[in-house]
Design a protein that fits this description.
Elements (H helix, E strand, L loop, with lengths): L1 H29 L10 E5 L6 H15 L7 E5 L6 H8 L7 E5 L2 H7 L11 E16 L7 H10 L5 E4 L6 H12 L8 E4 L5 H6 L5 E5 H9 L3 E6 L26 E8 L5 H15 L2 H10 L2 E5 L1 H21 L5
Parallel strand pairs: 1-2, 1-3, 5-6, 5-7
Antiparallel strand pairs: 3-9, 4-7, 4-8, 4-9, 4-10
Length: about 325
Amino acid sequence: MKKKSILLGAVLALSSIMAACNGDEKASSASGDDWKPTKPIEFIVPAGAGGGWDTTARAAAKVLEEQKIVNQRFAAVNKPGGGGAIGWAYIDGKKKDDHLLFPTSPPIMFVPLNGQSDLGHKDFTPIAALTADYAAYLVKSDSPFQNMNDLVDAMKKDPKSISVVGDSAPGSMDHMQFVKSVSAAGVDAKNVKYVSAQDGGGMTMLLGGQVEVYSTGVGEAVEQVRAGNVRVLGVTSAERIEGDVISDFPTLKEQGIDDVFVVWRGIMGPKDMSPEAAKYYENALKEMTETDAWKEELDRYGWLPNWMGSEEFSKFLDEEYDKIDKLMTEIGLKK
């Protein structure tokens, strides 16, 4: 009887050790430690060159490669059209692909809500949020509009006399951020004349005199302001943003327009990406955000750090969707 007890105890002990080992194995796998990319990674940009998605993807790829955080090359590929819908459709056809990433921001909600895509944030794998940016409204340096109130006054008199260009589709971010701002100032949002330049040509159209106003992000304004080609009428931050050049950009709030709009940007993968790959990329991006090289990219584009890991980012996306749904319903742009 004693021998049986000893034998049973040994078996139970061995079982416990094996279970612990298996648990360690699972923990290691879930952390992404056992998975690494085995080929170049597609970084799909669902827009043209030069916009916020493009700069986010290329800046992240550059730092991840140069700092040797990821052991493979990134291939950034632009797939513009439909405010992101063309790129998302391509990514949706790559379900379970562990070697594909793409940048994301509020259009992942705007576009499905306005009826231009059947795909939304729940159709992809959230990896991490990286940055916060703000909207900026630009005019040529020789424009008669000196500030946002000058523009608002002109639009109140005849909203269709002012052409506003953005690099996103109608009903998507560059359109919606501008509509939200001028609506807060008393302009009839439904009469705003918006022109879409989805090939990333919004700045070119502004400088060429084809439109009066360019709705974009703070990061896209900096170089042209430095060159003396454009003037920033207003930005949607609650307070002035610190940094070279951008600290001169006036907020809407200081001009009496009660509007704040945050342009968050992050990274997602295809639907059904393996948990190991998703965790690997989350860890790699977290490491990237802690480098001086990434901080230089933040300064270069006027971005603010806005880290959220996968779980927190996923919860944020659901909450943000509800807010945007409400906004678009209020101004009559939800389909």
